[in-house]
């Protein structure tokens, strides 16, 4: 069984090996196999990439991702522009028709609401929004409501 100190070292090594992460800005604390990530990231994508890297480490039971997203000044969009950017990104995505998705933005926090027909569409919408430049946080409230099939 790994000690918390060894697990912390392994998570730090995994973060440093991930090219999409600035590991120098992320701190790792471990207690009982639960990893807490703190610090700063320059995008929501980087925040969740760090979480994924920590979860890949053998012995990690859970991750508390408390990394703050601090956008570079030139990426700091006003909410109206960010909502427009997320909508445009959804419209350009070919995996699904997102005409039943509503986007709200408050201080860079994007919330997706509405319904889709398939679980992959829900995940795809979240993926598209997460990759949109300027998103600080994301809440996905999209429900999956498949079309009922008629009984024969």
Could you walk me through the main structural features you see in this protein, from its secondary elements to its overall organization?
With 152 residues, this protein is α/β, with parallel strands linked by helices. It has two domains: 4-69, Histidine-containing Protein, Chain: A, CATH 3.30.1340.30; 74-144, 2-Layer Sandwich (Histidine-containing Protein, Chain: A). Helices cover 35% and strands 26% of the residues. It has helices spanning 4-17, 44-56, 79-92, 119-130; strands spanning 26-31, 34-41, 62-65, 68-69, 101-106, 109-116, 137-140, 143-144. The strands form two sheets. Strands 1, 2, 3 and 4 form a four-stranded mixed beta sheet that branches. Strands 5, 6, 7 and 8 form a four-stranded mixed beta sheet that branches. Strand 5 (101-106) and strand 6 (109-116) form a beta hairpin. Helix 1 packs across helix 2 (44-56). The chain is globular. The chain starts with a helix and ends in an 8-residue tail after the last strand. The mean pLDDT is 90.
């Amino acid at each position: 069984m790994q000690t918390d100190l060894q697990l912390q070292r392994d998570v730090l090594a995994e973060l440093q090996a991930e090219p999409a992460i600035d590991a120098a800005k992320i701190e790792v604390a471990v207690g009982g196999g639960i990893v807490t990530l703190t610090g700063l990231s320059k995008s929501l994508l980087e925040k969740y990439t760090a979480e994924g890297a920590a979860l890949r480490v053998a012995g990690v039971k859970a991750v508390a991702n408390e990394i703050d997203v601090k956008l570079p000044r030139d990426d700091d969009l006003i909410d109206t522009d960010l909502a427009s950017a997320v909508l445009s990104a959804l419209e350009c995505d070919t995996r699904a028709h997102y005409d039943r998705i509503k986007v709200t933005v408050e201080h860079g926090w994007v919330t997706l609401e509405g319904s889709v027909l398939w679980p992959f569409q829900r995940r795809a919408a979240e993926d598209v929004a997460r990759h949109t430049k300027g998103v600080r946080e994301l809440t996905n409230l999209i429900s999956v409501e498949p079309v009922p099939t008629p009984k024969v």
